[in-house]
Amino acid sequence: MLRVAVVGSGPSGCYTAxxxxxxxxxxxxxxxxxxxxxxxxxxxxVAPDHEKIKSxxxxxxxxxxxxxxxxxxGVRVGGPGGLPVGRLRELYHAVVYCVGAATDRRLxxxxxxxxxxxxxxxxxxxxxxxxxxxxDGFVRDAESAVVIGVGNVAVDVARMLARGxxxxxxxxxxxxxxxxxxxxxxxxxxxxxxRGPSQARFTTKELRELGAxxxxxxxxxxxxxxLDPAYADPSGLPAVQRRNVEVLRQWAATPAxxxxxxxxxxxxxxxVELLAVGSRVGAVRFERTAPDGRGGVYGTGHREDVxxxxxxxxxxxxxxxxxxxxFDAATGTVPHRQGRVLRDGTVAAGEYVAGWIKRGPTGVxxxxxxxxxxxxxxxxxxxxxxxxxxVPEDSVPALRAEGFEPVEWTxxxxxxxxxxxxxxxxxxxxxxxxxxxxLRTAARTAAP
Length: 448
Ligand code: NAP
Fold this sequence. Notes:
The chain is 33% helix and 22% strand.
């Protein structure tokens, strides 16, 4: 019997657990998560209106319900009050860290921390009901918003700002966020890239969705697109970028139809400072850039201020070091060889990584499959060399002795039932519980 802990129950953790139990019938996996709820960014990152992507939870569920897989929520590994990595190693033959990239990249410009300026991840956490999210009235008193960055997260948050109550109400978003967004007066949403349209990171399907928003015009300035050398002839671009440029070209040729909201897609503007009005952010100062011919840009010295009472910095995620695990600060990842953790350049027996903490915050959910597959292959190839039998048969008593109250699958199912009841009481579908207290209370109602 090989007992493996997978830390993190997002897609990379679930795909890792799946690979392990499918390929070796002697493997038992505990999927440990600091939250009482499984699925990681599928539950707390995928936008609520992306129901098709969210339905992937059904696939991840079958993994966590496998007879040799067990979900243990509410157990933090590392950090203050968390289970030390060294202690976790004593409880399992091998540990796979699938902890993702838990924080946001910084811009490093003056004013970045002004009230009203948030990372997109904070905004996403709020409307996704993450129990650590803070509600600071993101859209209250805002009429104009700037989203910095042109990746898929930027598209998500721009779209959520533009959606009305009729579209948001059927989602599982928490009641407070729904009420705030329904009352929002944000009418101008500026999504701004520092490079050109042919270098934007969003994918075409996500980009096109902006054009399908019922109450929103998408505004694109053809002169700004034309600053991109690839704009005149996009035929040499990779398929996604070519299609992106084609979509943008169509929008640039379409006059606004006078809908109540506008998403302005802007390019070749790099943020240099967030400007205050009173004590809060009031505008973003950009510098016009120009292509340098090598895929980068240089500043032209021309400034443009865009008014914004809400700024969402959507410039990518970043991995966070876990006490007791090596960490490469330059890449925000754990050094590894084919998923095997490297300590001072040497493979550490029984320690593995998969997902964003292994390869950085890129790719779509499906990218985690081959990533997990590589790690699983490494672990199973090493399995005969791992000393068996020295770990407890069941880690739960040991976790309880350490002061944790693991939420097992029945606890999670009790949370699901509570969310269905809450939704029914509000005349909506399932509505997520937004705080630790209500999640813990619901989990405790599980039959023992
Ligand atoms: P991302 O794709 O890496 O995009 C980050 C954006 O921020 C880029 O436009 C980047 O511009 C810009 N940026 C970085 N540093 C900047 C700076 N200092 N100043 C101005 N702009 C800056 O990151 P993401 O949007 O957070 O997405 C993360 C991953 O999740 C991606 O793989 C994404 O596809 C995936 N995701 C997928 C979906 C979906 O499939 N629906 C939804 C959400 C997220 P440069 O290119 O110039 O660096």
